[in-house]
Each structure stands twice: as C-alpha cells, then as structure tokens.
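Page 47, continued from p. 46.
Same chain as before, 249 aa.
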Amino acid sequence: MNDQQLLRYSRHILLDEIGIEGQQRLLDAHALVVGAGGLGSPVALYLGTAGVGTLTIIDHDSVDLTNLQRQIAHDLSRLGRPKAESALQAVAAINPEVRGRALVRRADPALLEQCVGEADVVVDCSDNFATRQAVNAACVRHRKPLVAGAAIRFDAQVSVYDPRAGAHPCYACVFPPAQAPEEVACATMGVFAPLVGIIGAVQAAEALKLLAGAGTSLAGRLLMLDARTMRWDEFTVARDPACPVCGTG
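Result:
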C-alpha cells in the first residue's frame, strides 16, 4: 500500500481483526455483486469504499424514477442508464482505484458460470427466486462463499452460504428449488426504503469479513428482520444431505 492508501484505509488498519494484512487482502480481492438495485446499491458502495480491488456488477435493468426512493447508488442524472454502470460510477466517485466491470445482462447460468469462478466472494442482491438458485448452484460448483439477502415490504432476511466448509448448508438446503414461493415484487407490494439499506449493509459487512479473514460469518445462521418492530430473529440452519445442489445423495 502507498501512503495515500494507508491514510484512506487507516480506520480499517487500526482494527486488530483487519490490520494491514487484512486490508491488503481486500485490495487484492474480487467481489461479484448480482443486482444493482436496493440491496446492490449499499453493497457496491461499501465494498468500493472499503477498498475491494475488483468489483463486478451484473444487472440487466436501467435506472427508473421509482428506484430512487431506496436505490442509493443512483440519482436523477442517471435515469435510463444501466444500473450496473450507474452503480460503478457512484463507486468511482468515492474510490477511483476500484477496478469495476459492469455486465448489463441477465444473470443466467452461463454468465454466472464464468463470473462466479473469477470471484473471491459472491453477493446475491437479486430480486427473484430463480436467479438466487442459479447463483447458489454456481457458488457450490466453484466452492465460492455466497452472501444472500432479500427484502420486501418491512420483512427481510440475510445469511452466508459457504460451500468451502462441508458442515454448512447452501441456499438450496434452506430454500429447496422445488418449493418455489409465490413471487412478490416491490412494484406491487412496496418496500420500506431503509430496509434494503440495513440488509445491504449487513451483506457488505459479511462479504468484507470473508475477504479480510475477520470475525465469524453468518454461515449456518439465518437472520430475519421485521422492520415494523425492528426485531431480529436468528435461526440455525443445517445442511441437507439430500439437497439436490450440494447433497451427497
């Protein structure tokens, strides 16, 4: 690290759990963020400001006026721009040293197969069950840690699914692909603006901990938030030996 980086990241370096070594790991790391909306906005901003060296963002959508109620990486000047590009522009305005790549495409299995293999951590900020399952399957195949979050109305969840440790479940262990829930969209159900910020910040924190080797991750635990009462509930989740994605039979 040069003198400017030592100053920029000094508050991380002061933390015993991160220090110079952990910050260097962040600078050398590559994070993949799937989705640049409500969750992906704070994730991208925090990963970028914290010094993650390479940031790939996948999102096929464009910035719309209705997004600006909660998707804090975007602004009025970028209406109509691809969200992936807009989010990286916001990151670059704070930390131009981040190497950013915007992929304005749907996160289909073929694209995920390529991108997940290149990343050190994957943060799923998508808004539908099929994409979450595809991201999880790619992470299991490539043995890459996955930080997954979801939010609708006043309710949210977040966890880490780390296939590098055999005792931990994957996303499909907890949410089986064959039991797809009824899809609900914020366009019809609504979403409390700060909720995605809260969950996105937790996702960013978990991703940074994984990359820096700090603390203990949420692997094996599922956090549920009811923002009406601001009550967090924690559930222990176990690996399913019969899981169609990571199971042994």
